[in-house]
Amino acid sequence: MGGAILSEFLTQTLIPVAAVVGIGFALLQWLLVSRVKVTPSGVSSNNGYNEQLLVEADEEGVDGRQAVIKCAEIQNAISEGATSFLFTEYKYLGVFTVCFAAIIFLFLGSVENFSTKSQPCTYQKEKMCKPAIATALFSTVSFLLGALTSVISGFLGMKIATYANARTTLEARKGVGKAFITAFRSGAVMGFLLAANGLLVLYITINVFKIYYGDDWEGLFEAITGYGLGGSSMALFGRVGGGIYTKAADVGADLVGKIEQNIPEDDPRNPAVIADNVGDNVGDIAGMGSDLFGSYAESSCAALVIASISSFGNSHDFTSMCYPLLISSMGILVCLITTLFATDIFEIKAVKEIEPSLKRQLIISTVLMTIGIAIVSLLCLPKTFTIYDFGSAKAVKNWQLFFCVAVGLWAGLVIGYVTEYYTSNAYSPVQEVAQSCRTGAATNVIFGLALGYKSVIVPIFAIAVAIFVSFSLAAMYGIAVAALGMLSTIATGLAIDAYGPISDNAGGIAEMAGMNHKIRERTDALDAAGNTTAAIGKGFAIGSAALVSLALFGAFVSRAAITKVDVLTPKVIIGLIVGAMLPYWFSAMTMKSVGSAALKMVEEVRRQFKNIPGLMEGTAKPDYATCVKISTDASLKEMIPPGALVMLTPLIVGILFGVETLSGVLAGALVSGVQVAISASNTGGAWDNAKKYIEAGASKAARELGPKGSDAHKAAVIGDTIGDPLKDTSGPSLNILIKLMAVESLVFAPFFATHGGILFKI
Amino acid sequence: MGGAILSEFLTQTLIPVAAVVGIGFALLQWLLVSRVKVTPSGVSSNNGYNEQLLVEADEEGVDGRQAVIKCAEIQNAISEGATSFLFTEYKYLGVFTVCFAAIIFLFLGSVENFSTKSQPCTYQKEKMCKPAIATALFSTVSFLLGALTSVISGFLGMKIATYANARTTLEARKGVGKAFITAFRSGAVMGFLLAANGLLVLYITINVFKIYYGDDWEGLFEAITGYGLGGSSMALFGRVGGGIYTKAADVGADLVGKIEQNIPEDDPRNPAVIADNVGDNVGDIAGMGSDLFGSYAESSCAALVIASISSFGNSHDFTSMCYPLLISSMGILVCLITTLFATDIFEIKAVKEIEPSLKRQLIISTVLMTIGIAIVSLLCLPKTFTIYDFGSAKAVKNWQLFFCVAVGLWAGLVIGYVTEYYTSNAYSPVQEVAQSCRTGAATNVIFGLALGYKSVIVPIFAIAVAIFVSFSLAAMYGIAVAALGMLSTIATGLAIDAYGPISDNAGGIAEMAGMNHKIRERTDALDAAGNTTAAIGKGFAIGSAALVSLALFGAFVSRAAITKVDVLTPKVIIGLIVGAMLPYWFSAMTMKSVGSAALKMVEEVRRQFKNIPGLMEGTAKPDYATCVKISTDASLKEMIPPGALVMLTPLIVGILFGVETLSGVLAGALVSGVQVAISASNTGGAWDNAKKYIEAGASKAARELGPKGSDAHKAAVIGDTIGDPLKDTSGPSLNILIKLMAVESLVFAPFFATHGGILFKI
């Protein structure tokens, strides 16, 4: 069969180098962002413009220096709120992580009754492998590492976002282009840090574990799957907790502020406004960062664990084994070049160039990455090799693996473009939804829901094609690397995704600091593009989650020693139908949580407007802290039931009903969850942008619906509010549901195979 | 193995006798309803009360005689509108039926190249079976018969409903009990006619086909499956067309009438009011009748076709073979007794007794039917027999089959009760939704969607238990008879289901005829209970559809000569994920259709209010006919794309991708569609009743939200309007989607097995 062209030494060098380059590039971007000063003193020389000029340009007479000070204050308040929330959240997560680590160790250790003797391997019976207790221990360690990396990814993202938001506002004074670059660079910091950290930690873990495991790669990479589980379980709570936080505040703020009191969004008189802005950072930034890190970690783990029982696992070909990591390394370099196109090569001069520029990022990274994949596939894989395919061995050629990765990558692009089509107000779907506001909120909701349902069609076909091609060419390994392909440009994806909430915050800060309405218009334009890119980001997250969980599912089935999952058996079909129900149960919980928390927020905001004299007139300050507390308490309390649903389902089903039913549950949750997630996030994105379409009034048709406060606009605001929990809480949490259940099943597969299905054993 | 205790002669006698008894009972109920006269002359003696008294009791001074004449007029208008729409619809359906019959004949005939020679049987290779061209011909005939019976069922239902609506209004003058009995009896007419007709036609068809087929039961019952296909394909267009019709009118009428002009529901000044009432009859009555007839026909066909290759098929034990028909016969008798409890044994005296009385119907029929099933199972089945189980034979005992049918029956009851809990305003879920209207339409929609999602949980577990028990005991035959068990009390189910739209219409007629507000209150109370029973009916329809389509799916897989449907093969998994997407695509189409048609209706209604002087003052009559035309045109035009999606998908997938992918599509559509359907119809039902809860103001909490026209009520009306297409168009059409694709696949299975999957053959 022969080995890869790239030597093991070069592999061992190139991966950490790529990771370090990624981290360096992220720090460089941070440095560039930090040049924008949020302290008025000594500004002029650094920022290269005269503060005084800006003050003169400010038509409404808000003092520029005053505005800068105010921006800094607000930024501090947001940053402190977000940090304090995340630390409280991490306390809960710490308890969970310790308990769950204990469960992992005990359950996996019990597979061979905590024996410390070596055992025959699962797949190569003639060889001896490390005992189950070792896998239990190392799985626990990698679980902890994954959890830690996930938390750090989210936290750093939040830090840079709250660092960048006021800077974006201040740059918006100079024009939309400068503001765009600041927001985008900050997104890039997060993207590159996350991609590079994820790669580096995984790389080091593999090498450290290898010292103990030696030749037993089967055990080594089985233990590594804990990394994915750790990453994803933190992401679950991050997404759900953050999602409830942000939307409780957002919905609460909108319901009283915009609808009842008729004050603008982000008005500083609204007591929930700080909580709303904090929410963007803990939900859309930290939560999303953890989520995509989880996807990345899981798809790498899925690919590695399948590869460990392939021909290069058996022949200990380290370079080929590291193919998934090499793809990610190449991805970092490709994204680095891609980023330069947005920040240095093309310059944004007008509002209408923002969306094309972001879309160009997707296209450039995809095209470059296709070449990158070809190079990695040719250099790092043997010409032919065999892949484990549910009991039989499948011969695969290296160019076939190129197609597997590439089809995932391009499916991601298709999903991104379709999402953009359905959620951007530049196209007819959103415009139709906006037009339906003429006849009120009811038709707006009907059209919006229909749009979301419709937007599922093409992405599902894209995912189906990716699955079919990669599965046919290289079985489950193909699917795992297809998922990696979709995620290979994760740094760019995250950059354009994080850019959205940063712009949203920037707009909020401009409003709160009482800055010129022109600045608000600029940040609004950035934000509208951000809604679309956020939807695109969610599309990627969902698409990759579908592929990842299928790959994990395949790995689980292999590991659980079943060779088929036949729908036409009672155990599987009941799993399938119950699994398909789980996304609904989960969504019911999260949406209800947002609703209840929002009701509490509404009552508090109303109370403040009633009881604090001078609040509406702007002479008294609202009590922001109480609103922050309501969001914090609600999200921490409410994230537990949905979290428990996701974490306990695989355990309960596996223990009581066994691996066949669990397979059904995973497949059911996968095929149903993908649809719910895509439709929810696109419906929400479309409503948000339909509202922005009316507010912006860029065309004659749009102006006829407006202005703000018109009946059509009110109907649009109702749609937007309904869309909030759909697009930012329940929708994006669902990808974690399907991935997490799959990776958890994979980690516990040996336990279920040994001790599971007790109901049927009675 | 031995045969059944019941002789073939008795079987041949009892089935038609039960059917005739059912028809006779239906006619008796019709006769009782017809005693209520809608002509004022000669009323007193027949109705047993004095017309003059009623006029005096009429506080608002509307002349009683005048009101009766007006009722008759309105009833005529509704009846004519409905009849004219259905005839137009049937023209379209006629064209479709002829074309599709030709496709069936050609496709199935081509399996053996139109050879007229006998061929070895599919399952018993040593025997000779009739040629494929005979099956093609007889399948076509049974398809036509199924289509005809379905259309007749729907049409008769509509006729009795439009006959009963004004009579219910008039009876409401005497009290809520009398009105209830009239509406319920009319529902029973429809229920019994449909159940008995379905049984009778099927019975006759089997006996006639037997003359040609003789001993070849494999071919005989394969040809019979066309009956299910015919029934269900008419149901599809009936549900979709009728659903679009009724909701376009309803949404359009509400948006302008209730929200813009602040006039009550069903106000005669609203130009869309007649179209709205016509819609109830063509959608909720005719469409639903066709739907449940389809379920009944399909589950019978699924059971028969599987039984034909079981031991009693092979040994030509006619009584055992007719077990499904005997269950249905028993069901008719049980429902007959059950009906007497509502109409004769217990009397309704107060509004609050309505819902318990309807619920009692469910309980009584279920308990009695359980005994009935036991009797049939013991008398009509051999003690032990074998069932075909994907290639192997499974030994089954007669008491095991009792459990299969009973578990389906009781699962239906559980689904019914859970649906009631989530959609009746007597319980906390709907009350919470109503309370959320305090903070506006947005929270109402969020809570309503969450309620719908949550309401999926228990029904899915009930379905899963039913599947598991019946599948484990008797493979696919078990599932088919479990579906039949759920449908065995169809006459009662339909009676309480049809009761809803009749009461709704009765309320509309009272309003339009300008009758006393007390009468309107009584019909409103009937209607509120009707909303709940309609939701229960939909729950049954969906639950049974899930079981039926699984049974059909199993029969298809057997017939297509594949022995397993392994999720872990590329062909199946892509089918699964695309299949799970189809309910979304379909819902997007139907909801958008309702939205667009409603917009047209809104424009027309607005135009009339603007251009017809004196309309608001009640001095000029609106132009009802134009609104009827808009609904008619829209529904006929818009029913084609979703219809085509459902009808073409199995053909395209089967021909291009083959039976494995088609299996995946069927399983995916099943597990995903059930969830969407349940959540959509319960969300809609809950919103409707949350609105009614506020309007009725029966408790202190409810009165605080009201009265009509308050902000909370307006928010509730928005929710109700959004719910309309969910609960009456897209939701209930989805059961047909999953059933129809399955039965179509079954009918075409020999064709796909021979000529299908051409893409993979290249």
From TrEMBL, chains A, B:
Protein's recorded name: H(+)-exporting diphosphatase
EC number assigned by the record: 7.1.3.1
Subcellular location: Endomembrane system
Listed InterPro entries: PPase-energised_H-pump
Keywords of this entry: Ion transport, Magnesium, Membrane, Translocase, Transmembrane, Transmembrane helix, Transport
The UniProt record lists the keyword Calcium: no
GO cellular component entries: endomembrane system; membrane
TM regions (residue ranges): 12-32, 92-111, 132-156, 176-204, 321-342, 362-381, 401-419, 456-484, 540-562, 568-586, 645-671
